[in-house]
Amino acid sequence: MQQIDVSALAAHLALAVPQLVAVGHARDLASASRETIRFPSAWIVLLAEDASEIRYASDDAVEQQVTGRVAVILAVRDIADRAGARAGEDLKTMRSAVLLALGRHVPAGADQAFRFSRGQLLSGVDSRGGLFWQDEFTLRFDRRIQIT
């Protein structure tokens, strides 16, 4: 495995969490506006990769263990409840489904599933009843690069 395939991860999440109306990427999030967001939605963003020291090296290959970090940004809304109680319940349901979907998912080329790292509120309930939350997950995998 060379890197986390964000498109494959988004496709997996869309299938595993059918309650999500839309699952996008960082480029989709960048172009989203309050008027265009469909609720509930998620966006998958590759945040970082950290590599260990070279574990194996030869004249023709290098191998390292890599820890990739992705964010799943969730958007939920309840227009009937501007105080956010219902949006909070919807968020709880969506987060549980996403945690299970990624915690059980072993991507092609990896030997383990994603692990939850942390979560945080991105925005409180807005005037339209929307709430945004970010959960971060890590995945460890071996990256082998053939030099010749």
Give a description of the structure.
The two termini are 18 Å apart. This protein is 24% helix and 41% strand. The chain has one domain (6-146): Phage tail protein-like (STM4215-like, 2-Layer Sandwich), CATH 3.30.2000. The chain is built from three helices and six strands, in the order αβαβββαββ. The chain has 148 residues and is α+β, with helices and mostly antiparallel strands. 26% of the residues are buried.
Summed over residues and divided by their number, the pLDDT gives a mean of 87
The CATH architecture: 2-Layer Sandwich
Radius of gyration (CA) equals 18 Å
Give the class from helix and strand content and strand pairing: alpha+beta
Q: Give the number of DSSP strands.
A: 6
Percent of residues in helices: 10-25%
Q: Secondary-structure element order, as H and E?
A: HEHEEEHEE
> Please, how many domains?
1
Specify the CATH class: Alpha Beta
What is the CATH topology classification name? Answer: STM4215-like
Ends apart, CA distance between termini: 18 Å
Largest sheet: 6 strands, mixed
Q: What general form does the structure show?
A: elongated
Q: CATH-wise, what's the superfamily?
A: Phage tail protein-like
